Amino acid sequence: xxxxxxxxxxxxxxxxxxxxxDGGAGVAAxxxxxxVGQALECMRRQSEACHGAHxxxxxxxxxxxxxxSGLGSRLAVELRDEYPRVPLFTLxx
Length: 93
Known about the structure:
It contains 3 helices and 2 strands; from the N terminus they run ααβαβ. It is an alpha+beta fold. The longest helix has 17 residues, at 66-82.
């Protein structure tokens, strides 16, 4: 599916690994983890499909574990940087 980003491994309950990546092959050229890049690409495709009517984003993520807390927090930061004028609502569980 074009609206999904996934990875084969988790982040082992480590916030830093979820936020910054593992520093290995999973980090793209811009310094952002590859999974964050994939998620932002999915987000870009979805917002372009709105034909200029992108009125906000809802990000649902967990506060427990490395993938939910670290990766979710990093994704919120990256979304704020990419779309600074669009409301960002987070639902943290």
